Every structure is written in structure tokens, then in C-alpha cells.
Amino acid sequence: MVELSAIKESLLKLYPFSEEELEGFVAKLKYRTLQKKALLIQEKEIANSLVFLINGSLRLYTRTEQGELTITFFTENHWVSDLESLLQQQPSRNNIEAFEPSEVALITLRDIHELMDRYPNFKLLNGLLANLSIPTSRLTSIQTKSPDERYASLLAEHPDWMNRFPQMHIASYLGMTPETLSRVRARII
Question: In terms of Cα–Cα distance, which of 34, 38, 41 is closest to 56?
Fold first, then answer.
């Protein structure tokens, strides 16, 4: 199965797990289909799973007084969770919404701990969790970089997002209004 090889490949990037360890991991996975706009995690809910996005796309956002603030997007073959809620086992302040019909594979925190007990190498899954954190450089760029620089960085890092997500969500991710994003796009194009 394609998704199993993608999941195994992502694990092998962290450590050369044995086939037995990989099979133990994939045996714990549960699969779920999300319809467009369905919430994988919603605010006030505790994240209890690490999720692999098989296909589709997801958006991590929070609600503010000004409206929804997009924190990041997830696309195929990426691990997903609300890291703070997962690690602290506290209610999330964020939402993770399916941006389009999506298929995911989930492994619960409990199952991860069982794997760590059985196969000590799974303590190296911290590398997956590190990939879920939002780099402070991205957050500070909203304050330190011009809108043109932020847009150029996004084009360099995630050019596929421009055609996949609406301008209003891209603008929110970049910390600008949709009108500002339109002007920036016109200048850069």
C-alpha cells in the first residue's frame, strides 16, 4: 500500500528502524476519512494522536478577536497534531480542519508509549514531534520582514500552497490582509 510505504519512509528518515519495529508501528494505525471542513482537532479538545496525512490538506488555525488566524497548512505525507496539546495533554487552543476531503492514519499517544516500552528505538519519535513545532523564525518574520519578503519566502518554501489554498488563508498565514497580499502578488508577478 502506498500510504504504508510513505509512513515507513517518514519513520526511516528519523532512524533505521527494523522491519519488525515498522510493522509494530503500522499495526497500531487507525484510518479515518475527513470530509471538507471536518475538524480533526477542535479548540478545548485534548490532542491524543499523532496523525499522518495520506492525502488531502489540513489547516491549523486559532480564533482571535480579529477572526481566524492561520498558523500553518499540512499537505500529503506530513505528520500532523497540535503539538502543545499533545505533549501537555491540555485542551487545545487551536483547530485543525480538513481543507478538502482527506485521508489520515492516526496513532494514539498511548500506542506510541506502548511501542516505546516494547521497542526502545521509538523514543526517537521526538524527531517527528520536532517537525510539528512552528519555527520561531516564521513567527518573528511577521514582525521583522516586509510583506514582500514574507511572500517571497512562502513562494520559495511552499510554491504549491499558492494554488491549493485561498488567498484569504494565505494572507492570514503571512500576517497580512487579503488586500495587501493582492498588492504584493501584483508587484512580485
Answer: 34
- In total, the chain counts a number of residues equal to 189
State pLDDT tens for residues 75-108.
999 999 998 898 889 999 999 999 999 999 999 9
**What pairs with residue 30 in β-bridges?**
106
DSSP one-letter string for the chain: -HHHHHHHHHHHTT----HHHHHHHHHT-EEEEE-TT-EEE-TTSBP-EEEEEEESEEEEEEEETTEEEEEEEEETTEEE--HHHHHHT-B-S-EEEESSSEEEEEEEHHHHHHHHHH-GGGGGGHHHHHHHSPPHHHHHHHHHS-HHHHHHHHHHH-TTHHHHS-HHHHHHHHTS-HHHHHHHHHHH-
Number of neighbouring beta carbons within 10 Å of residue 1 = 8
**103 φ/ψ sector (left φ>0, alpha ψ -120 to 50, else beta):** beta
Q: Whole-angstrom Cα distance, residue 147 to residue 31? A: 39
CA nearest neighbour of 105 among 122, 138, 74, 80 = 80
Nearest to 131 by CA among 14, 31, 22: 14
Give residue-wise pLDDT tens across range 16-28. 999 999 999 999 9
